């Protein structure tokens, strides 16, 4: 066998580490919901702006006679 030091990790250490992670992650759903709301708001503004731009482009294209005619 080699003379390298060995590390033994028991189930209790793993359990304690998982409990610590659960404590950290459990506070994040509020942040995730807030982030999702902000993304939905941004998507709404982008689609609204694109729709208004489309309507304006259609109106302008109908109002201005083509140059090549």
Characteristic terms for this protein:
2 helices; mainly alpha; 69 residues
The averaged pLDDT comes out at 85
Q: State the helical fraction.
A: over 70%
H and E order = HH
Terminal Cα separation, in Å?
Answer: 91 Å
Concise summary:
With 69 residues, the chain is mostly helical.
Structural commentary:
The structure is a single chain. With 69 residues, the chain is mainly alpha-helical. The protein has a domain at 28-64. It is 74% helix and 0% strand. The protein contains two helices and no strands. It has helices at 11-25, 28-63. The N and C termini lie far apart (91 Å). 0% of the residues are buried.
What's the SSE blueprint?
Blueprint: H1 11-25, H2 28-63
